[in-house]
């Protein structure tokens, strides 16, 4: 990583020139016969696909959340409900809410910087910054270039990924693919959303649910097999109007009952699909980290898959639904609580607007 791009380019050009035969050498080389050409083509077509020998590990996780905490008491009166009604319906007791002057890019940068510090990696070593978000500060530019600039990741490519609450998992897929293909060696993946910016404060179905926050992980290359399994992603645009933010209103509208049913069904199924893809069983997973959409969804998925509550992370009580940020926030929460340790197998699963959904199995830790 120490070599500059210019130095690497010069080295590549020098090596390429050395490998090219001179015109005199080319003249002396006999042309391959038709049979030799067929043999070479057949060998090439029959040759197995060779792995790059590079895997991906999650080196660290970091978070960045607004300091303002809003308890149910500040919301219940406005909605005309009791505080315990919110807890029963959502599992949420409080949430972090950004103030008007706060910027999503700032909290996304804080999360990424903490993750890099914990991994012991300098921003100059980052090849790519991906930000999964629905609520960037401006329509243009994307949040990712702003985060990369604020970090000092001057040589990194940067772009946003929009897949609603499945965004972080989608970004994880992109980042891991870049590393495993050899196109990058270090990728920062951020999930960040300020959902309060698009929530109607008087809407009972959403006002007590959505919240603000950011979380990030650092993906690094490792020799041999990686620790991120196949990422199973799915989508069904037939459910597009179940969770919708129209430009003319710019507020989230959600059909709660239908969304609940779809979320439970899709998360349960994609869990089994991801386990099959990773060739592991339910009993081999130490921790199930699902998108923190609603406490009742978490309980229903756990019940459908016959999982004990101790194996299903539930931190929605203090964070609320932060959309693309919930998975990294839940990972950091689990690590902080001593429930996530190096070597643990973790199932990550998410479901969101679109509909979009996905899951994967990771082995926690870089060592």
Please name the CATH architecture of the largest domain.
Answer: 3-Layer(aba) Sandwich
Rounded to an integer in angstroms, the radius of gyration calculated over CA atoms is: 24 Å
SS strand fraction:
15-25%
Number of strands: 13
Instruction: Provide the CATH top-level class of the largest domain.
Output: Alpha Beta
Cα separation of the termini: 20 Å
Find the CATH topology of the largest domain: Peroxisomal Thiolase, Chain A, domain 1
Write down the domain tally.
Answer: 2
- Main β-sheet description: 5 strands, mixed
Q: Strands across the major sheet, in which order? A: 1-7-6-4-5
Helix residue percentage: 25-40%
What attributes does this structure have?
367 residues; alpha/beta; Peroxisomal Thiolase, Chain A, domain 1; five-stranded mixed sheet; disordered N terminus
Brief description of this entry?
Helix content is 37%, strand content 21%.
Task: Provide a descriptive summary of the structure in words.
By secondary structure, this protein is α/β, with parallel strands linked by helices. It has two domains: 54-223, Peroxisomal Thiolase, Chain A, domain 1; 232-363, Peroxisomal Thiolase, Chain A, domain 1 (3-Layer(aba) Sandwich). 37% of the residues lie in helices and 21% in strands. The protein is built from twelve helices and 13 strands. The protein has helices at 5-19, 23-28, 34-46, 73-79, 83-90, 104-119, 143-151, 167-180, 256-278, 295-304, 316-319, 326-336; strands at residues 54-64, 69-71, 94-96, 128-132, 157-161, 186-194, 212-223, 232-235, 243-245, 252-254, 287-290, 345-352, 356-363. The chain has a five-stranded mixed beta sheet, with helices on both faces. A hairpin with a 3-residue loop joins strand 12 (345-352) and strand 13. Helix 6 (104-119) packs across helix 7 and helix 9 (256-278) packs across helix 10. The chain is globular, with a radius of gyration of 24 Å. It starts with a helix and ends with a strand.
């Amino acid at each position: 990583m120490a070599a500059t791009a210019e130095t690497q380019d010069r080295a590549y050009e020098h090596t390429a020139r050395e490998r090219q035969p001179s015109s005199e050498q080319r003249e002396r080389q006999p042309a391959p016969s038709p049979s030799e050409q067929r043999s070479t083509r057949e060998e090439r077509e029959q040759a197995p696909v060779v792995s790059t020998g590079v895997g991906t590990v999650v080196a660290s996780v970091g978070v960045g959340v607004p300091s303002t905490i809003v308890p149910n008491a500040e919301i219940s009166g406005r909605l005309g409900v009791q505080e315990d009604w919110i807890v029963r319906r959502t599992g949420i007791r409080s949430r972090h809410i950004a103030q008007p002057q706060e910027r999503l890019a700032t909290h996304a940068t804080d999360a990424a910087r903490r993750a890099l510090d914990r991994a012991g990696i300098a921003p100059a070593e980052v090849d790519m910054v991906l930000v999964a978000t629905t609520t960037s500060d401006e329509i243009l530019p994307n949040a990712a270039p702003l985060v990369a600039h604020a970090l000092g990741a001057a040589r990194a490519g940067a772009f946003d990924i929009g897949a609603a609450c499945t965004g972080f998992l989608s970004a994880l897929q992109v980042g891991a693919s870049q590393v495993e293909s050899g196109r990058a060696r270090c990728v920062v993946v951020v999930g960040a959303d300020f959902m309060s910016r698009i929530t109607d404060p008087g809407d009972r179905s959403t006002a007590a649910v959505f919240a603000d926050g950011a979380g990030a992980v650092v993906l690094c290359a490792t020799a041999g097999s990686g620790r991120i399994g196949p990422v199973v992603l799915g989508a069904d645009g037939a459910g597009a109007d179940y969770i919708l933010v129209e430009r003319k209103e710019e507020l989230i509208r959600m059909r709660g009952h239908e969304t609940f049913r779809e979320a439970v069904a899709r998360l349960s199924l994609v869990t089994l699909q991801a386990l099959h893809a990773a060739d592991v069983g339910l009993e081999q997973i130490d921790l199930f980290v699902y998108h923190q959409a609603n406490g009742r969804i978490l309980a229903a998925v756990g019940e459908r898959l016959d999982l004990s509550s101790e194996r299903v992370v539930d931190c929605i009580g203090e964070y609320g639904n932060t959309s693309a940020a919930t998975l990294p926030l839940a990972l950091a929460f689990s690590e902080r609580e001593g429930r996530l340790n190096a070597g643990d197998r973790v199932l990550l699963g998410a479901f969101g607007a679109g509909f979009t959904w996905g899951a994967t199995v990771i082995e926690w830790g870089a060592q």
